[in-house]
Design a protein that fits this description.
globular, 78% helix, MATE_euk, single chain
């Protein structure tokens, strides 16, 4: 496809399109849900759409939580090694790896639009081409990002981190270079499999990787005393285990026409693909990088090691809950792109309504669990009494943030499925960087609210 500006859709004449929907989608396509006129119609369609959505969202949420837990489990064990080690892993995970993961996820999300709509339109042979095209672009991007890993220590010093944290995080970053290239391979494969609703196999692989990761992290980091070196070995190995397993599944013939082998077509129309990938990257990265900025600001506060460690625990918890929303994000993106590709605009709109309601209910449930366990969960992350007390004090704000933040990734999934990445990027710039960060700086430093301001600013920008 030469032009990546418009979503990929099945052939149709101009007068078949419903311009009121602001998308090039055929109106009244066969298979679209009928108009909803009363509560009975709504209830019937809500249950039907919920079944489809959770068939995708359940395994996607589980996969997201397992993959996020790889870094989170490493932080948990690092907290039991020492406060400096926890701060170092947190800074590397949030700043260096977070920047790179945001870039890879963002650029890879272009496949959610292209593969999802191609699958819905029945153009299965294009999925493998898009996958390989994305690999080429993301591996090239990873080569550039590797400089950030190599020079992480001086970079962190320049932006104001303490010498001890910068030095430890810099060494750990160099050890984590293999993970960078694992991100580049993983993100396209995940979108490729998601577009075909092959969530279960991803969930199984992620679960096996997490079990392997937890066992060997305990063995190397605590039992054998390898510390940060052990963390790097296990974390790199876990990500490449996921990649190898998914690649074997894809090339082994389980994807049918979607994978017909490696092809030189992957190098055609790269610039058009890069444009959509960059728009996708900006949309996703602006949100993920906000977490990185919060961790950096904590490093400027008094008693930086405690501040960074406490905030990293809160961001870790928030990240786990956001994984549930990201799983819903993946599911709704698949639903929207597939339905638009098949020419079902009403079904796509109704899927949005169902996903928002479901995400809000999940957020409330997670927030209640956090509030009821606020006296206990900080001990899972650290032995430091000061760190645990700060985390306990911030739990109420963190719970409110979880409820509000659980809906936003779902809306982003709709934008990705419809191909609206560029427009949402402008919204994210305004919310996060023109409003949220300045608010955080004013409250944190002028009014001396410390790291509590990180959660407050995150709430206000939503």
């Amino acid at each position: 496809m030469a032009d990546y500006k418009q979503p990929l859709l099945p052939p149709a004449t101009k007068d078949q399109y419903d311009h009121a929907d602001q998308l090039l989608i055929p109106s009244n396509g066969a298979g679209d849900i009928p108009p909803i006129r009363n509560i009975r119609d709504f209830s019937r369609e809500f249950l039907a759409e919920s079944a489809k959505l959770w068939f995708l969202a359940g395994p996607a949420i589980f996969t997201s939580i397992c993959q996020y837990s790889l870094g989170a489990v490493t932080q948990v064990f690092a907290g039991h090694v020492g406060t400096l080690e926890l701060a170092a892993v947190s800074v590397e995970n949030s700043v260096i790896a977070g920047f790179s993961l945001g870039t890879m996820m963002g650029m890879g999300s272009a496949l959610e639009t292209l593969c999802g709509q191609a699958y819905g339109a029945g153009q299965l042979d294009m999925l493998g081409v898009y996958l390989q095209r994305s690999w080429v672009i993301l591996l090239a991007t990873s080569s550039l990002l590797s400089l950030m890993y190599i020079f992480a220590a001086p970079f962190l010093l320049v932006i104001g981190q303490t010498a001890s944290i910068s030095r430890a995080a810099g060494v750990f970053s160099i050890w984590m270079l293999p993970q960078l290239f694992a991100y580049a391979m993983n993100s396209p494969m995940a979108k490729f499999l998601q577009a075909q609703s092959k969530m279960a196999v991803m969930a199984g692989i992620a679960a096996a990787a997490l079990a392997f990761h937890a066992a060997f992290s305990w063995l190397l980091m605590l039992k054998l005393g390898w510390g940060l070196a052990g963390a790097a070995v296990v974390l790199n190995a876990s990500w490449w285990f996921i990649n190898a397993s998914q690649l074997v599944y894809i090339v082994g013939g389980s994807c049918g026409r979607a994978w017909s082998g490696f092809t030189w077509k992957a190098f055609h129309n790269l610039w058009g693909f890069v444009r959509l990938s960059l728009a996708s990257a900006v949309m996703v990265c602006l949100e993920i990088w906000y977490f990185m900025v919060l961790i950096l600001f904590a490093g400027y506060l008094k008693d930086a090691e405690v501040a960074v460690a406490a905030l990293s625990i809160c961001m870790n918890i928030l990240g786990w809950t956001i994984m549930a929303a990201f799983g819903m994000n993946a599911a709704i993106s698949v639903r929207i792109s597939n339905e638009l590709g098949a020419g079902h605009p009403r079904t796509a709109k109704f899927a949005l309504i169902v996903s928002v309601i479901s995400a809000f209910m999940v957020g409330v449930a997670l927030a209640l669990v956090l509030i009821f366990t606020k006296e206990y969960y900080p001990s899972l992350f650290s032995n430091n009494l000061a760190v645990k007390q700060v985390v306990t004090d911030m739990t109420s704000l963190l719970a409110l943030c979880i409820v509000i933040n659980n809906v936003q990734p779902v809306l982003s999934g709709v934008a990705i499925g419809a191909g609206w990445q560029a427009a949402v990027a402008y919204v994210n710039i305004g919310c996060y960087y023109l409003f949220g960060i300045p608010l955080g700086l004013i409250l944190g430093y002028k009014f001396h609210m410390g790291i509590t301001v990180s959660i407050i600013s995150f709430l206000n920008l939503k």
